[in-house]
Amino acid sequence: MIRRFRLFRSLPFQKKLLLSSLLLSVLPVLLLGSAASYFAASSIQDEVNAKHASTLRQLESQVDSLLKRLDYMSIQIAGDLTIEKSARLGISMDDRVTLETTLDMVETFRKYRSLSDLPFHSYLVYNHFDIVYSSRDGLQNTYQFPYYDALRQYVPKFTGSLFLPSNTYPNQRDFLIVRPVGSSSTVDGVLFLQVEPERLFELLQSVEISGDSQLLAVDSTGRIVLSQKPMEVGTALPTPFAKRLTQTVQPSPTDTVAYGDELYHVSVHRSGYNDWTYVIIAPQGGLTAKADLIKQVTWLMAGCLALVWGLIALFASKRLYYPIRALLMKLPQRTKPSQDELQQIDAFMQQMMDTNRRLDYELREQIPQLKENTLLKLLHGELNDAEFALKTEEYALPLRGRSFAVCVFEVDAFMEFRTSYMGKDRSLMMYALTKLVDEMAAPLFPAVCVSPSFGQVALIAGTDDPAALGSDIEDLCGRVRIKAKELFRFTLTAGVSRVRPEVRSIHESYMEAVELLSFRLLLGHDLTISQRAVEPMDTVKQSARNLIMRQKAIVKRISEGNIAEAVTEFEDMVREIPRQLTGFKPVTGIFTNLIGEIDHLLSQLGYELHQLFPDNVYAKVNEAETLDQLKDWFVDCFFPAFRHHFERLTVPNQTKIAQQVAEYVQNGAEGELSLQEAADRFGLSPSQLSRMFKEEMRVNFIDYVIEMRMSRAKEWLVHSDMPIKQIADRLQYTTTQNFSRAFKQTTGMSPGQYRESVRHQQGGSA
Question: What is the pLDDT at residue 408?
């Protein structure tokens, strides 16, 4: 089919036009004929369906009426006090009471048989005495009972009778009705009513259907219980017809069943009294003869019309093709038409449309990204004046002037900011911050904003008056910091570069602003830092650089697990601080920066700082009033917590923790179990606990939890009568469907099937 379609596409347009004309001329005729054929077949099938449905309802009414009378008779006999008493006392010729009861029982059976309009024989099985009384054969041993196989498989239920059609068990020719005798707590006997099957066959023979059709009744297992052919009773319905029984809708004219070399139409009707399904199987050929004739006439008419329209299409296609040739000659770079002229026109138009779509997409969708990329290149010195002028005009950048300055805003508590915003929240927060700076700068001077990295926003401002720009930017920085604190509840520090001429100096200004931000360690947070503020601090710059090197050494020792050397480096840094810094505010910045570096290290290792310290360590640093207080807290609290944490992660302890976690899951299979809860309980991160558990137990934590829950569910299903819904609730499943789905994925069967299967095996072995 695909090859034919490709062949059609490769044809010249003139031939396509000819083929299309033929198709348009023939297609309406084909559709009309197909519709007529369909409605004719549907009408015939509807008539057949209605007739079959009426027949099946009639048969259902007659059979159900007969079964109800027999069922009612079995209820009367089984509930008769004389029958119940006889089943309880048994049969004895020595005991007078038992003998009288036996005689009354025989008389009772005779009475019920004489009152019934349906001939039957009755059997009373004495469960406690291994004997059977038959109204036809008298007393006999249970093992000699002709329906012993049925008795052995019978499970007493007081909620209804059990119908056993002919051939349900070996040597069972008759139709049986079985009902228990006794109280609801004790089954003293079992009543069998035997009915000759000829009466049921007479009902089927009285129904009028076509000679080739077959009338059946099938039980819920797909076994034939009634048939016009007695030898079929007890056999399984062929699989193609059995599948049709599972459908709930009536068949359509094309809904046929293939069996052998023939097609059959199957009508079904389910009884509301029992689980039987009444079926009519009719050959399909006799039902569609008229529809086949209509199809033949339709195709003959279509052939004649196709011949006429083919001649017309051949002439018209040549005349219609002349304008296309003239249009092709007017296309650029064309001297003469080629074999596939319309495809060339289409390719030219498609090229124009693709170009328009590409330009439109770039303008509508990519302009924000292109603007941001241009500004980042500008900050990193990758654009010259000519390139920047071109991009400014292309993207309508609102940056004008002969001199430029750069201001960089950076979040102060960066580590807290990083952990507070994840995924899309990060992008949204940076967009909001960039938008805030842009909107507040727009009324003051030509400027553009971009976010070079997470937690940082750069503002590029242009002016023709360099003297006024510096003070305007510093004033803007103060208002932005106040507004950000109100809206976002975090503080910013701004680094403001000097005003420089020409576009190429923007990169130098950006690097200067970033360098100014490093003085937060000395000056504190939530400030605007300009070059004027740090010009007299050359000696302090070198001091801060030395202290930062000390911080990096401490972080390295911690990453190696060598807490003792980290403490030594820390004490050396504390001894240098009085000689390097003046004032307590820069000291607080040094310690805050150290905690930030350690927090970043823990994040890379898969841990969180709050797992080691329940209190806010940043707040602890800010609460200190002297250097000695900071030193004592780090030495007495901070570093010992790290030492304790690393000692718990040794390999032998890993095995112990994994075993404790497994025991925790086994004991808590009925409760809410999550990786986060287990990690919190044992003082680990979720990723660390997952890795340790997998290495020691050779199974994922979640899989182990499911395995324990399914094991508990199996125990309850086998050894208790607890409803499945209650089991699902106790195992913390939100719905019974979720529990059943998980159980089936584990065991291959539903909870109900598992309970029935195991109990059936136990009952069989018993």
Answer: 92
